[in-house]
Amino acid sequence: MDQAHYTDAIALLTPLTPHHCDFRIHLILSGAYEGSGDLAKAEATLEDAHTTWPSNTAVATSLAREYLASGQTDKALQSLSNFHIAPSTPPQELEEAALVYLAGHRLELAQTTAETANRRYPSLRSLLLLANVLQLQGRYKDVNAMLETKRPTYSRSSAFLITFAESEYDAMLYEQAHQDLTDAVALTPNSYQAHFLLGNVFLAQNSPDQAAVEYHTAITLAPNQPRTYYQLALISRQRQDDATEQQLLTQALTADDHYAPAYTEFGRILVDQHQYAQAVDKLRLAIQSNPQTEQAYYLLSRAYASLGDRDQSVEMARLYTKIREANRKSFVNTHPGQVGATPSNPPQ
Predict the structure, then answer these.
(1) Against a cut of 0.85, is the pTM above it?
(2) Domains and CATH numbers, the chain
(3) What tens digit of pLDDT does each residue of 75-110 get?
């Protein structure tokens, strides 16, 4: 395995797995399959081990990682159903469990696990993991206070500065966020995240031209990120440049055809243009991609009302109110830092 002789490792270990004599055989075999590119067999090997040793944290977290990598978040959570933190639980297992809990929006479990990892195995990695958990709970003030104590230690880490800047941005400390992101870019000029967040900060500081420069740089670094095109589209909206906005929204959907904010914005444009039937199509796609997109329900209610479909309009208004209340109770913000109007009341 250390020499990347995956085929040899697979040939050696495969005859031993039916005996289920040692879980480590399955872990190593799964790693060999993964290294050779056979992800299906890697996952199947871990599933077999998990059936035999359901309370083994090494097996559980390894299987959860495989599920998460393939987008099976529910299965990843299920594989951790018997996961318990012990005094000997290693940092990698704590980190993998916390990441699965984050992906599944189990924020209390994620926080407990990340706090344990940071307390037992203090490092930049465990610190930022805990910071990310707290950020998703909206606790940016706690994050700022925690990270400020570590600034002397990690001031030369771009990952630290970027994470810190996100919380400073959420706290509307734009000058501090600007400085930290500038320092992060100086350390890692090719950081997509740093340039994207710096664009958000410039927008918050009413500097759309500078924001656009950062977004274009971010696109050069990561052309498959739909949110960057979306942010540029909203700058075009502010400039009343409808043609450019729609072009950028199309690029966002080319990057990710399940990106709900772009469908919602397309729907808003079509509603404003009185093209209500076409608006319904776009807004339905937004909800299909993300059922928690509250503005899509609001706009659908308007569109159906204009089409004379009162029943559907009332139903969409009801769902809008329900989703809005649920979103306000949730700490998870799917698209932090994006500009754009959010309606306050559904149409009557």
Answers:
(1) no
(2) 1-68 (1.25.40.10), 136-222 (1.25.40.10), 254-331+342-348 (1.25.40.10)
(3) 999 999 999 999 999 999 999 999 999 999 899 999
